[in-house]
Design a protein that fits this description.
The complex is a heterodimer of chains A (about 190) and B (about 230). With about 190 residues, chain A is α+β, with helices and mostly antiparallel strands. Chain A has one domain (about 25-185): Nuclear Transport Factor 2, Chain: A (Roll). Chain A has helices at about 1-20, 35-45, 100-110, 130, 185, and strands spanning about 20, 25-30, 50-55, 60-70, 75-80, 85-90, 115-125, 145-155, 155-165, 170-175. In chain A, a hairpin with a 2-residue loop joins strand 4 (about 60-70) and strand 5. The radius of gyration of chain A is 19 Å and the shape is globular. Residues about 10-20 of chain A have low confidence and may be disordered. Chain B is about 10% helix and about 75% strand. Chain B contains one helix and eleven strands; from the N terminus they run H-E-E-E-E-E-E-E-E-E-E-E. An eleven-stranded mixed beta barrel of chain B has the order 1-2-3-4-5-6-7-8-9-10-11. Chain B is globular and about 50 Å long. Classes of the chains: A alpha+beta (about 190), B mainly beta (about 230). The interface between A and B is large, with 31 and 42 residues.
Chain lengths: ~190, ~230
């Protein structure tokens, strides 16, 4: 009985660890390797800038991502493994978030860390495919969230986190990144 | 931010080439190999210690203005052993103090150094600014004081994140000024590397370390070192 319990715990522990941290392998791919529905979605948006395609894999899921940089703004469009649109993320500045939402996000980050620095903010649009096709002009029917990458210090430990907040600034998800080793840049 | 980084890199490359072209007037060169091994141990979230061993071997030398001076020069030059203690002082900043001992021509030189490092990541690009002051003590010579600034950047060659078993590009650009016995000298270094990450904490890099430096008003020396760096952290 004790042995069974240990085996069960051994299986549960890696799953629990996975839920707390974000481990993804990202790889650049050619357009031809992307599912057709994803290619068609991007083609219909008629971007004039170069489109870079990536596949992201973790232990469970595989997603495709198109990244476009136009007029200094980076836009990431994510698809599931079959090429169905999941969401659109556009990099924005802190000032673009309403003051009420900023206040709630700050409150959360100040609770979580002794010191923190926001490294990247993306506004995330999700909804029906037909509505997402118009994300640049009409966001009325879309769900808006904010994905924020934060470098934070707590109990002298510095880590990277990815937060997901609702449009009103309520915390929806928080995952820890693997800390990137920079010894080869510093020494 | 990307535009700022692009401008910064273009400016540095421009400055470097200006210095290099002016150096062709009257200058010597040395070609060699520079292997180095760096071990880093994280003691706790704030402190890291680092040990580095680096050697230099010359292969060829000559003068740019006279091709007849090109000659083989296969010699062991020196070995540096350094130990550093690094403390994080902010989210992106750290301070380092270190000691280096150099074995050259049966002599031992000693150097103390102090570093301030700012490291950042902008999407795929990693950037580190390193400011160094050092003091070198050689037998029967006055102490040499140097000030150094180095900009280093890297980016993965596959995707936006450096994953294990992937290649990356790294470029170091460093500017040095030195004062010894009331004489000033300076040096510029540009080192493009191709790196390979076995894991996040185990990396190897190969590159060409080009150094151009003046010694007072006398002449300019150019060094081309084939550099092989191995980094191991735990």
């Amino acid at each position: 009985m004790k042995a069974i319990l240990i085996i069960v715990l051994l299986f549960i522990f890696p799953l629990y660890s996975y839920a707390q941290s974000k481990v993804e392998i990202e790889e650049r791919i050619e357009k031809k390797d992307v599912p057709l529905p994803a290619q068609q979605f991007i083609d219909s948006l008629c971007f004039s800038s170069k489109i870079k395609w990536f596949v992201e894999q973790n232990y469970i899921t595989k997603t495709f991502e198109a990244k476009i940089t136009a007029n200094g703004t980076t836009c990431s469009i994510e698809f599931d493994s079959l090429g169905k649109i999941e969401d659109v993320e556009v990099e924005i500045s802190w000032k673009k978030i309403s003051e009420d939402t900023q206040g709630k996000i700050n409150e959360q980050l100040n609770t979580d860390f002794e010191k923190h620095k926001i490294k990247k903010i993306q506004i995330q649009y999700s909804g029906k495919e037909t509505d997402l096709l118009n994300f640049r002009t009409n966001t009325e029917n879309l769900t808006i969230k904010y994905e924020i990458v934060v470098k934070g210090q707590k109990e002298s430990k510095i880590e990277f986190y990815e937060y997901l907040f609702s449009e009103k600034g309520e915390l929806e998800n928080k995952v820890q990144f693997d800390f990137r080793n920079t010894d080869h840049l510093e020494y | 931010m990307k535009n700022v980084i692009k401008k910064e890199i273009i400016l540095l490359i421009g400055l470097f080439f200006c210095v290099s072209v002016s150096s062709l007037a009257q200058s010597t060169y040395q070609i060699g190999v520079l292997p180095s091994f760096t071990l880093t141990k994280k003691i706790n979230p704030k402190w890291k210690v680092n040990l580095n061993i680096q050697s230099r071997f010359s292969m060829y030398k000559g003068e740019f203005s006279n091709s007849d001076t090109f000659q083989e020069d296969r010699n062991y030059i020196l070995t540096d052993i350094s130990a550093l203690a690094n403390r994080k002082i902010g989210l992106n900043t750290s301070l380092t103090v270190g000691y280096l001992t150099r074995f050259r021509n049966k002599e031992q030189h000693n150097r103390l150094f102090q570093q301030f490092i700012i490291s950042n990541k902008y999407n795929a690009v990693g950037l580190a600014h390193r400011f160094v002051t050092d003091q070198t003590f050689r037998p029967n010579q006055k102490t040499e004081f140097r000030g150094r600034y180095r900009l280093a950047f890297d980016r993965p060659l596959q995707g936006n994140k450096l994953n294990p078993k992937e290649f990356y590009l790294k470029v170091n650009n460093e500017y040095l000024v030195s004062l010894q016995d009331k004489k000033w000298s300076n040096e510029v270094r540009l080192i493009p590397f191709l790196g390979y990450a076995f894991t996040d904490k185990n990396k190897v890099e190969i590159g060409i370390d080009y150094r151009v430096g003046s010694v007072g008003d006398e002449f300019l020396r150019n060094n081309f070192w084939t550099t092989i760096n191995y980094y191991l952290s735990w």
